[in-house]
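Private note to self, pasted from the team thread so I don't lose it. Backbone tokens:
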């Protein structure tokens, strides 16, 4: 697993290399691996910032978003369980969704467990 470094380290490594030293010399100087120094310098050159890229899926996406109105209308009827909702979604729209995924989606839409 990767090791997290504070943001000042990539800045110092990039500045060290920009001052005329090699990436491997920067790695030895700052006590990081050669590949880490090379990647830090490459990221700084490519993006202009040593900050790491954002991880995870961008918000607002997902396969259930197009079916939000169907799901909300179905849940507003009383006494439906998540497995039943998953079955209705599969029957009507041919979309496979786990009950836990439906529950998380509906919680993000403002519904509660009750």
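Design output:
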């Amino acid at each position: 697993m990767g090791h997290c470094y504070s943001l000042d380290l990539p800045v110092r490594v990039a500045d060290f290399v920009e001052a005329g030293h090699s990436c491997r010399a920067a790695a030895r100087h700052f006590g990081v691996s050669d590949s880490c120094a090379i990647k830090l310098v490459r990221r700084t050159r490519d993006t202009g910032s040593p900050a790491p890229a954002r991880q995870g899926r961008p918000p607002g996406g997902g396969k259930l978003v197009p079916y939000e109105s169907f799901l909300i209308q179905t849940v507003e009827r009383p006494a439906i369980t998540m497995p039943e909702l998953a079955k209705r979604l599969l029957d009507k729209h041919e979309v496979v969704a786990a009950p836990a995924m439906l529950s998380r989606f509906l919680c993000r839409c403002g519904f509660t467990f009750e």
